[in-house]
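Proteins fold reproducibly. Look at a concrete instance:
___
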Amino acid sequence: MPERLAFGDVPRKHHLAARGASGELRYEECLTRKGFDGPYTILYHERRPQALRAVGPALVEPLEALPRGAYEGAARRHFRTSGLTRGRSTATPLLFNADLVLGCLQPSASDEAYRINAGADELLFVLEGTGLVRSALGDLSFTAGDYVLLPKGVLYRLVFDAPGLRHLLSLEFAGGVGIPGRFRNGAGQLRMDAPYCHRDFRHPVFRGPQDEGLREVWIKRGSERQRFVYDHNPLDVVGWDGCVYPWAFPILSFQPRVSSVHLPPTWHGTFEGAGALVCSFVPRPLDFHPEAVPCPYAHTSADVDEVLFYVDGDFSSRLGVERGSITLHPGGLPHGPHPGRYEASIGAKRTEEVAVMLDCTAPLNVTKLAASVEDASYEASFSDTSSAIAAT
């Protein structure tokens, strides 16, 4: 997490009795990581935070992978997420492995109940829409182009502004996600040569107890969701301190590296999760060697599956993709620019592309829902020049 924060009314030392102005006892809640060995946040509630009860049977929503035999001939794949059915209150899963689930969230309204993801950190990227994350820790605003981290175990809901398009990339990391350790110094501070600084990250604005009249909480762990109900307001926190909280980071605040020749994607690494590296491609000057080929070279990543989520601009290596497109290039298979893109890049001085990329160490499965918005011509477009040109 970026840094320790403290807000509101907290006692002078943790685990001491905290009392209100009239002497009423506050209830301490410790939100911890890695048991008790990792980062933590301590919240102080007006009522007991554990006083919630399960209601009804759990909903089991298993991930359904497309049978391998159904797509053996389409190794490199392209999904047009703009074609997904809108209005689901939960993310539509598209790709997954043991480490993560990648999907798209396109809700028609704000959440009508609170959520807790008890099984994974959620990293959202906002393609369309504005609003805020409301939690007991405060309100965190977001807009198009923001990454938003929702830590495992935090109670929250998404509140959107006026009606309009809402399209978010959703990444769930069972083993957690955060800032790579190589970007921190020995004191935990972001290094001066990191691709961002502490000032780039936005944290929740604490407002104290907020009673919205909502009592429902949906708790998710893996493929199971269970409805719980409070008898009191769950946003009853009077103060908190710690390092576990939602935060937002604008992708355009990422500081890209520039070289005389083309740099590999790891130089665009932004966040690191168990089993995956999240990279940010942003507008930047291109390679400045007089003989440089700025377009990415063809490569065989034998150990990772590569996923790209296209956000904006003309992506130098691809034809036929659109805003919201997702491409999957499996490990071990040569992949690279579409016909003509490598040659056409020579002499280019700048790119305006914006995209989110994942390098995943475990092979990704494709869901049946993803197959419903697949561009079946994508695989052939790498070897068939005419079909690639037709895709523009």
Q: What stands out?
A: The radius of gyration is 22 Å.
